Amino acid sequence: MDAARGDDSSNLPRNLVFKPIGIIATLAALRNICSGFSLVGRICSAAPLHDLRSPALLPILHSMSSSSSSDSTPLSVHLPVLMREVLRALDPQPGQIIVDGTAGGGGHSREILKRIGDTGTLIGLDRDPMMLQLAAQKVQGDNVHLIHASYALLPQVLQDLGIAQVDGILLDLGLSSDQLADRQRGFGFAAEGPLDLRFDTSAGEPAWQLLERLNEEELATIFKEFGEERFASQIAARIVETRKRKPILTAQDLTAVVTAAVTSKRSDRQPATRVFQALRIAANEELGQLEVFLKSHLQDFLKTGGRGAIISFHSLEDRLVKNAFRDKHRFRLLTPKPVIPAAVEQRANPRSRSAKLRAVERL
Question: Domain range for residue 220?
């Protein structure tokens, strides 16, 4: 990610500060976004959005961009999954307004933008400022808005843009390869940096603090509910025992602790896979935000005949999407069964294997 230095906006990526692309952030709202969800799913509120093109807010964008010493934004290495299937489901047309609620590296957004053309409007949201910078390399134009916000804040985003409803909404709930490659946030098992696991490091509580603060029962609940981890109790007990001697601060630290707790019981995968998933979901309030979106936003902000498509990567997400899409009073199901990547895509991109696409049309 870019390192922005000093007060001169010339150090900032041009399309992140000035038109044609508008970047909007929730500032204080995203600093504590949906912190009430936790395990009980309470709804959060958010403050008004602010435009980062304002000179008074340039220092905020500087701080977003300061985690790397590189003078140039690297290219995204992420391969968007189910591209052909997503385009078939959304069927974007010239002049339409489409929301990519998880813009990521901009792969899906770029293909959608080609189809809606100059007369359409593309709104790309992401909680991760690094991903927005990568997306800005692929999608540009007067009709493009890249916005630093969660898709759970869609009502505020559209209100700020003066848009009542849209023609299509896409969510890709997977972890980006670019995020996995970021060794400073602990998404990979061998990452040497802090065990953070947050998409937006200015909001919420990092995973290492959760491991330090929560008691054994609370940790076991997170691992069981968010990771469907069979050995949740054993792992939680080992974490509590270990932290008495030394803090668990990095991905490597956590991987070692989990491996010691379950190695004799499991050999089919990296033992810490489900624990990392659970902590990431907890740190980012992922399921709570998805529930809010499915209960209200998808229906409220899609036009009649508009389409929604969601790609999930684990059973907890897919179960929520599946149940919401069953509502025959609100939606017409476009995918009676989840669409999965073809064999050729799975071979080319092994990380796509667990992807499932479901789509609906608003009635």
Answer: 183-286
